[in-house]
Amino acid sequence: MPFFADQDRGTLRHVWREAWRRRCAGLPLEPFETQIAAVVQIHPEYHAVLGGDTDSLDRDWSPEEGQGNPFLHMSLHLAVRDSIAADRPRGIRAVFEQLLVTHPETHDAEHVLLDCLGETLWEAQRAGRPPDDRVFLERSRRRAQGR
Fold first, then answer.
1. In the chain, where the domains are located
2. What three-state secondary structure class fits 134?
3. Fewer CB within 10 Å, N or C, the chain?
């Protein structure tokens, strides 16, 4: 993703905050800001993080605190949506459509793919290699089939 390549964590978090602020203020949004705001909209539990003080831009959201990183979570939503739209890896759109049968709420179906993507990224990071699209697709297929 070229947009993210030269951005640090604070800058990226500011993009999320600014897109949400503009959306709440009824200001015009760039296309990417519209995508961000749509993801934030379905996560009311994160509205305070984005509208609160600037500490959330610097905070380390560690699993030990018992709370996931909202910026990571919402970014994975964007990645999953992009993957479905581009059908990359090829076949992921069909898997998503299959998930919609058992998870009629789009958000819930996205969460299944989000979990698969997160696990695939985690494994790749631990192994020191790039994420494998085939692993993500196969893991997603298994979950869609209830395995």
1. 1-62, 87-147
2. helix
3. C
